């Protein structure tokens, strides 16, 4: 297998995480004279930018989450371990992981931590019960069930307030994920589900995009943000900015406007796409390194060479890393991982001096967000464009970065079905899941407090 033996140990690189950063680091070490162990809490590599398409029935989970072992099976110097990392000892150079109660301790010569981030509710974690985020495959499948379940409940609800509540979808967060989800819910309702119900018209649903910020897609600038907002509003999406969510429950959300007024949005299906929080491993690493801190999102404030102070061969990359000028996007993780892997390879050749390393330099290859079928916004360097040209650029880029030829082909077929036609082949496999969600939700409803009386308005917020 190319792994070291007890009699002939090679330099051992441990990589934590199988996301963009972890996978890029492993691939960059393919021909290096090292042994690599990649530890991940999931068995797959997740193409997170397309999770919203799993949630809205365009793609299957397998198309955005191929098995990590299959991706790396031909790389003989890599071993993949499934497990949840519980301890990192920087001075002892060990990593301990846990799988089903069995602990595995690994020693390392170099460590690349690409553990990523999770959904943040800004201190109100109780919101997650009624407004799930979208960071994992399970999240996306849960949301797919909730979205479809809302239409099913509306079909049998009495006309009026209760039916309107089931046909109101609230998306919290006007970043790329929130914009993409809001647009896809509208298209799902108006195109795919058109004519499939008898008591309701799915296209009459209300989609509300809520954000505490003053603009849509603030990271992409005022011009593209305004273009995206206009397109969403033309599709019928209500965009509510400067609106802070203050409460989320089974029946809706409460928001506080920029003028301090409170209002409530009655909604059965809420989706949280606002904010991320770094893995707890960041704080664990910082605590063992004098002078290393984490920011308020839990990201490690790394040195210019992506290491932690006092440990020149412990690298932190991706969403767990905080470095000025490097955004928390896939390209930042990939470039940082390749940079770290190259330093490891230089050290094996005796050409790496930690005191004289060139600082990591991030190359901005642009950012994109799709709004609807044939419409997206894109920023590449100083060039900003949208509409159909932006959508084509988005299409090519995402196909390029999908892992594996099979995934590209099946994804293209799924996109043809959805974008050219009106179908979503992944919705055909959802009936049992919707039934299961219905049973769970009704069981849960029995333990929830009843709704406010008709004359009362709860504080609204985001």
UniProtKB/TrEMBL annotation:
Residues 12-336 form the FAD/NAD(P)-binding domain. The keyword Glycoprotein does not apply. Keywords: FAD, Flavoprotein, Membrane, NAD, Oxidoreductase, Transmembrane, Transmembrane helix. Residues 442-462 are annotated as: Disordered. It holds the Pfam family Pyr_redox_2. InterPro entries: FAD/NAD-bd_sf, FAD/NAD-binding_dom, NDH-2. It catalyses: a quinone + NADH + H(+) = a quinol + NAD(+). Its EC number is 1.6.5.9. The chain crosses the membrane at residues 383-403. Belongs to the NADH dehydrogenase family. This is NADH:ubiquinone reductase (non-electrogenic). It comes from Mycolicibacter acidiphilus. The lineage of its organism: Bacteria, Bacillati, Actinomycetota, Actinomycetes, Mycobacteriales.
């Amino acid at each position: 297998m190319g792994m070291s033996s007890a009699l002939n140990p090679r330099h051992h690189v441990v990589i934590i995480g199988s996301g963009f950063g972890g996978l890029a680091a492993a691939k960059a070490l393919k021909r290096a004279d090292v042994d690599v162990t990649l530890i991940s809490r999931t068995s797959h590599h997740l193409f997170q930018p397309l999770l919203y398409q799993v949630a809205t029935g365009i793609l299957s989970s397998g198309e955005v989450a191929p098995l990590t072992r299959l991706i790396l099976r031909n790389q003989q110097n890599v071993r993949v371990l499934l497990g949840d990392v519980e301890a990192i000892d920087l001075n002892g150079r060990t990593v301990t992981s846990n799988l089903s109660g069995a602990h595995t301790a690994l020693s390392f010569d170099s460590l690349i931590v690409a553990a990523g981030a999770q959904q943040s509710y800004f201190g109100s974690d109780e919101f997650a019960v009624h407004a799930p985020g979208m960071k994992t495959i399970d999240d996306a499948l849960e949301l797919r069930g909730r979205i479809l379940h809302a239409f099913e409940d509306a079909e049998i609800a009495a006309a009026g307030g209760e039916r309107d509540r089931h046909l109101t979808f609230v998306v919290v967060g006007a970043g790329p994920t929130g914009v993409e989800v809001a647009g896809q819910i509208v298209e799902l309702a108006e195109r795919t589900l058109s004519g499939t119900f008898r008591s309701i018209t799915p296209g009459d649903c209300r989609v509300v995009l809520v954000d505490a910020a003053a603009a849509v897609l603030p990271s992409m600038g005022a011009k593209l943000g305004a273009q995206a907002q206009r397109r969403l509003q033309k599709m019928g999406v209500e965009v509510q900015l400067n609106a802070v969510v203050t409460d989320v429950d089974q029946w809706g959300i409460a928001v506080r406007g920029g003028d301090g007024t409170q209002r409530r949005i009655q909604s059965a299906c809420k989706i949280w796409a606002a904010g991320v929080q770094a893995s707890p491993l960041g704080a664990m690493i910082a605590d063992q390194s004098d002078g290393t801190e984490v920011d308020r999102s839990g990201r490690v404030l790394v040195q210019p060479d992506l290491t932690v102070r006092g440990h020149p061969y412990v690298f932190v990359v991706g969403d767990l890393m905080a470095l000025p000028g490097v955004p928390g996007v896939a390209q930042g993780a990939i470039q940082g991982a390749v940079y770290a892997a190259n330093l490891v390879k230089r050290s094996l050749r005796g050409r790496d001096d930690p005191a004289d390393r060139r600082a990591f330099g991030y190359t901005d290859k642009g950012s994109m967000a799709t709004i609807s079928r044939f419409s997206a916004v894109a920023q590449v360097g100083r060039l900003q464009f949208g509409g159909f040209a932006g959508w084509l650029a988005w299409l090519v880029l995402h196909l390029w970065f999908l892992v594996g030829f099979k995934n590209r082909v099946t994804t293209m077929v799924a996109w043809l079905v959805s974008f050219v036609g009106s179908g979503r082949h992944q919705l055909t496999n959802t009936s049992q899941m919707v039934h299961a969600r219905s049973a769970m939700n009704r069981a849960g409803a029995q333990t929830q407090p009843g709704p406010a009386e008709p004359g009362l308005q709860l504080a609204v917020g985001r």
